[in-house]
Write a structure and sequence with these properties.
The complex is a heterodimer. Chain A is built from five helices and two strands; from the N terminus they run αααββαα. By secondary structure, chain A is mainly α. Chain B contains five helices and eight strands. The chains are: A mainly alpha, B alpha+beta.
């Protein structure tokens, strides 16, 4: 109410306040729409993360099982040596997309699964168990890259959601009520002035009638 | 800061992610890097998988009329959660995704449908705020 008392109570101010309230309300509605859309995006991303993580964990379990098997068959040192000889490159294209002003990464992954000839390790010194382990790990890598993209997206959306929520709350609980308070104050004051005028006129009329 | 300035700043920022110029599906499919530049100067990439999906949903003759990204317009006057899709080809594609019957060149969709569209076409659709 302190802010309301600082406005001058006249009709011009009331009109201005009405316009400001309408604008603030419009902004609030739009930001609320944005917040709803962000919540929807966030929940969808979280659902996809859940699915993607479950798949990635399952694939990692398979991969480590295949790797243990390979180490048992081929030997730890030989497996490590083959891993060092392997070509460590994956074709990925990292770009950005925009969700309501939020820059989120999009990753397009090329083929991660290679055949035994293109992996780079010696074929006559290794066994087929290494090929199986490598294949499983390559599949896991694809899923992990996808998961990383989704997690980064979720973080970015959550940050923007927090910011938007703060704006919506500021409009909803501070600015709009303050403007409405000021409007109410002016309307009350104008009514009061009208009543004062009315009483004054009645009083003047009574005095004039007394004089007559 | 005055209320108007805060609100106008926020309203101005709402559509900063809209591209300066949209591209057609045909152009996006033929381009090595299908991208559009947004008003705030950032780059928005379209995923190839989505472009392929759209090309399957629309006959080749209409690839030229589908403008990307497809705008999902959020308008407060429509009510909370409602959105509008404009354009013949755009409505046709969205109707096929939602398995709806197409009636007009404009389509009003609701929150669950928006979620379906965003799930299937995350890069080839964008929100637009209209007031």
């Amino acid at each position: 109410m302190a802010a309301a008392l600082s406005v001058s109570p006249n009709r011009m101010e009331l009109i201005k306040l009405k316009q400001r309230t309408a604008l603030a309300q419009k902004g609030h509605d739009l930001l609320k729409d944005k917040m709803d859309a962000l919540v929807m995006e966030l929940f969808d991303t979280l659902r996809r993360i859940q699915e993607s993580r479950a798949k990635a964990m399952e694939q990692l379990r398979k991969s480590y099982s295949a790797l243990s098997n390979c180490m048992a068959v081929l030997g730890t040192v030989e497996t490590m040596q083959a891993a060092r000889q392997t070509r460590k490159e994956v074709q990925i294209e990292v770009s950005t997309r925009n969700i309501m002003g939020i820059q989120v990464p999009t990753v397009e992954i090329g083929e991660t699964e290679r055949n035994a000839l293109t992996r780079g390790y010696s074929l006559h010194l290794t066994s087929s168990s290494l090929d199986i382990a490598a294949k499983e790990l390559e599949r896991a890598l694809r899923l992990l890259i996808g998961l990383a993209e989704l997690e980064e997206t979720a973080f970015a959306i959550a940050r923007e959601l927090e910011r938007t929520k703060r704006r919506v709350n500021a409009l909803e609980y501070i600015l709009i009520p303050r403007l409405k308070d000021a409007m109410r104050f002016i309307m009350m004051r104008l009514d009061e002035m009208e009543r004062e005028n009315f009483t004054r006129l009645k009083r003047i009329k009574a005095i004039l009638e007394e004089r007559r | 800061m005055k209320v108007e300035r805060i609100v106008k700043f926020e309203l101005g920022r709402l559509n900063a992610h809209i591209p300066e110029r949209r591209i057609t599906l045909k152009l996006a499919l033929s381009s090595a890097k299908p991208v559009v530049f947004t008003k705030d100067g950032s780059v928005h990439h379209f995923k190839r998988d989505e472009l392929k999906l759209l090309s399957k949903l629309l006959p080749e003759g209409e690839w030229d009329s589908l403008q990307l990204p497809i705008f999902i317009s959020l308008e407060p006057k429509l009510g909370r959660g409602a959105a509008r899709i404009r354009g013949e080809a755009e409505v046709k594609v969205i109707c096929k995704i939602l398995e709806k019957e197409r009636k007009e060149s404009e389509l009003i969709i609701y929150r669950p449908e928006v979620a379906v569209i965003r799930r299937k076409l995350p890069t080839t659709t964008q929100y637009m705020f209209i007031w």
